[in-house]
Amino acid sequence: MHDIRAIRENPHAFDEALRRRGLGALSAELIALDDARKAATSAAQANQERRNALAKEIGGAKKAKDEARAAELMAEVARLKEEGPALEAAQTEAGKVLDDRLASIPNRPNPDVPEGADEHGNVEHRAFSGNRTKLATGRQHFELGEAFGLMDFEAASRMSGARFVVLKGQLARLERALGQFMLDLHTGEHGYTEVAPPILVRDEAMFGTAQLPKFRDDQFRAGEEHWLIPTAEVPLTNLVRESILSEDELPLRFTALTPCFRAEAGSAGRDTRGMLRQHQFNKVELVSITTPDQSASEHERMLGSAEAVLKKLDLTYRVMTLCTGDMGFASQKTYDIEVWMPGQETYREISSCSVCGDFQARRMNARYRPKEGKGAQFVHTLNGSGVAVGRALIAVMENYQNPDGSVTIPSVLKPYMGGIEKIEGLKS
Length: 428
Fold this sequence. Notes:
The protein has 12 helices and 18 strands. It is an alpha+beta fold. The strands form 5 sheets. An 8-stranded mixed beta sheet has the order 1-11-12-13-16-10-9-4. Helix 7 packs across helix 12. The two termini are 55 Å apart. This is Serine--tRNA ligase.
């Protein structure tokens, strides 16, 4: 959500930011909509003010026993009162038109975000190579999982359709171990507070984090009033909706391990084999609520927290700064962490860490009261994967596979695996 007053004050800067996003100039359109809203508001207010003034005149006319004048004034009041609902409706509609238009426009990128049209414009920020020898190639995760008899796509398809999986036995335990390891790391070493949030949320929560209205087709509706969360970013960020925090409370840092649900609209034909693109998956989410002057450093801190997961798993990865044409709708700046997948012989995204500025806070009306100065200000929000559990499972399977087809358990996960050293027992 954008501040129309800021757009009025510097329309060129707003248009230039949108140009970097690949959009045309919109400031003139938005200012015109705001002018229409102001005119409708003025008309409704003038109607009410005139009615108030006439009420006093009627009292004076009656006191002076001028019944003719009183009747004339009362007739005008009746006419104005009859016009009132239409003027109020026009005021409401003009405000809604402006708000809807503002809500449809993506966040402005930070000045240091590289400009580009798509993923080809992304820039490598840094890379990490673990102590283990990097596998150049190998079996894909679904080949390993199906050979183990512990990854069943057919059974999942029979009950749920495409893009679902059933994990069994040691693979199910390995996925659980990964999630628990990540939560313990983020709460024990990185200062995040664990939250067990609802996974059903209302329209207002989805609007607050900008999944609605633009990305409605990517979501799963649950009944008449709720949505299944696409990420725990939604409930974690909305913990501060419609509230005014004190500056002393900030930053707030939350983490949660939840199932996530995505319709994957428009992804037909992409990653149809395996677990890379599922309708349902587990993810550990990181969310920070900060003051504006802290948000840039908090973004780097969050990125480091997500990287720590992969470093402890000793996985090779790289961090990419997304360009203006590839970053998300609500983001000002995004880092993607891409982990090496030897089965595919390429890097794949496993985490995305974004700073959103006050974009989501405006949609949620989430503010804080500074120690100095008057008036409440909007907080800044950040979110990131810490990390996607299913993709971490894929990365471990593919990077820790052995020539005999077994998969070694990373040392950091062994305490969570009850002493299991390897996943073995290949069928073929």
